[in-house]
Amino acid sequence: MYTGIVQTVASVASVTEHKGFRSFVIDIDPDHLEDLKIGGSVAIEGVCLSATVIEGSKVSFDAMTMTLERTNLSRLAPGMAVNVERSAKMSDENGGHPIAGHISCTAEIVALKTEEDGAFLRFRVPAEWSKYIFDRGFIAINGASLTVAEAEGQEFTVYLIPETLRQTTFRDYQPGDHVNIEVDHQTKVTVDVMERTLERLMPQYLGGR
């Protein structure tokens, strides 16, 4: 479990292709590696991955083909930057919202401004996921906990404070790029339960006409 508060931005040191998976070596600030062990969970661009090798500040992670297809990790190349968050402890303060690191979908950036004054990002999500995104609702984008400012149809907008710009990789993105989206779990459960309830009730209403 994660909080959606990105702890550091790290650099991709290398990428190695294997049959059925891809390995990433991420060079992470040692200050954020305390007590990390093999098998420990780390969110990379919002994707929950397990550490497979730790050599100094360089940590290796493997991503299966399914993960690469569902996320934007396939775009990563040496020298690129990624958002990093270690898994949360029960005693940690949660300044964001609970995040599992299980990506719902990717969203295309349709517009953005990354200057500090009035910075924003606007996205387009697949239609089947737009029903879980509401004005003032929580959403995780590349692992960062953010609040939806406006949502209409398949598009939604978030605004960014200077600290978010400083502490994340959003400055590196351009229109047309894709980001990882994790919809709020509680919102998803609520919407799904309401839909299923209405589906069960609808035949009764229709039969009574």
Characterize the structure shown:
Residues 1-97, 98-194 form the Lumazine-binding domain. Lumazine-binding repeats lie at residues 1-97, 98-194. One of its GO terms (biological process) is riboflavin biosynthetic process. With 209 residues, this protein is an alpha+beta fold. The protein has 2 domains: 8-86, Elongation Factor Tu (Ef-tu), domain 3, CATH 2.40.30.20; 105-192, Elongation Factor Tu (Ef-tu), domain 3 (Beta Barrel), CATH 2.40.30.20. Helix content is 19%, strand content 38%. The chain is built from 4 helices and 13 strands. The chain has helices spanning 65-70, 127-130, 162-167, 185-207; strands at 8-18, 21-27, 41-44, 47-55, 58-64, 81-86, 105-113, 120-124, 138-141, 144-147, 150-152, 155-159, 178-183. Strands 10-9-13-7-8-12-11 form a 7-stranded antiparallel sheet. Strand 3 and strand 4 (47-55) form a beta hairpin. The N and C termini lie far apart (48 Å).
